[in-house]
Design goal:
The chain has about 230 residues and is mainly alpha-helical. Helix content is about 55%, strand content about 5%. Strands 1-2 form a two-stranded antiparallel sheet.
Length: about 230
């Protein structure tokens, strides 16, 4: 009698297989949920068939590195003339100059901001030469505020404050000098600093002169730069 009763009960293996099959069916079945706050009565939710470790994979991030800075002669870039690239430190100095202009809430990026950018970058030959001659970021910032004044506290600079005409000429001067040298290589931070100095009457030039920079030191920096390639 007991054996007859047990024979009528479903086996454990068939029961568990049936439950597993039903659970998989329910798990992958699209479901509709009422979400009136989204402006719709039903939202269909579909589950991915990817495994957890496959879903966690990320696409590789594509990054681009700039090799040029703004120029007033864009036709030069499309000409057959091979234009030298700016060095990584020079590009970083330019970016730090833009950021400093924004911190001071100035509407433009001038030669004074480029000068501060060189000092903020801190590792180039130009930056070290300035500090060795007593020209520091704090002194340049103080002289900038004395010369140009403080900006309106309610003014917000654009994300990329446009270059002043003097700052743009300083950049183009650096490119021209590198092309005249004809020695190949990159446009260095030293070229950028000497470009700022070449703009007599600009805020950057005035600040450098006030802090003791002169033509003799400009020639010294040019000589050091050509010897070291920095």
């Amino acid at each position: 009698m007991a054996a007859h009763t047990l024979s009528k009960l479903p086996t454990t293996s068939s029961t568990s297989a049936s439950l597993f099959s039903n659970s998989n069916t329910r798990r992958r079945r699209p479901q509709s949920l009422p979400l009136p706050w989204l402006g719709t009565n039903n939202v269909s939710l579909r589950y991915s068939n990817l495994r957890p470790h496959e879903q966690s994979k990320h696409r590789p991030i594509a990054a681009s590195v700039l090799s040029s800075l703004p120029t007033a002669n864009p036709e030069r870039l499309s000409s057959a003339e091979k234009v030298p690239k700016w060095s990584r430190k020079a590009i970083k100095s330019f970016a730090m100059g833009e950021l400093e202009a924004r911190k001071l809430k100035y509407p433009t990026t001038g030669t004074e901001a480029l000068l501060m950018g060189i000092l903020i970058e801190g590792t180039s030959l130009a930056s070290k030469f300035l500090r060795a001659n007593g020209i520091t970021l704090f002194k340049v910032r103080d002289e900038t505020i004395k010369l140009l004044g403080k900006a309106d506290m309610y003014f917000f600079s654009p994300e990329h404050p446009p270059l002043t005409e003097a700052a743009q000429r300083a950049l183009d001067w650096a490119v021209d000098q590198k092309l005249k040298a004809g020695d190949g290589g990159e446009i260095l931070t030293s070229h950028l600093l000497l470009g700022i100095w070449s703009e007599a009457g600009s805020p950057g030039h005035k600040i450098m002169a006030t802090l003791g920079f002169n033509d003799e030191k400009a020639k010294e920096l040019e000589s050091l730069s050509s010897e070291s390639g920095m």
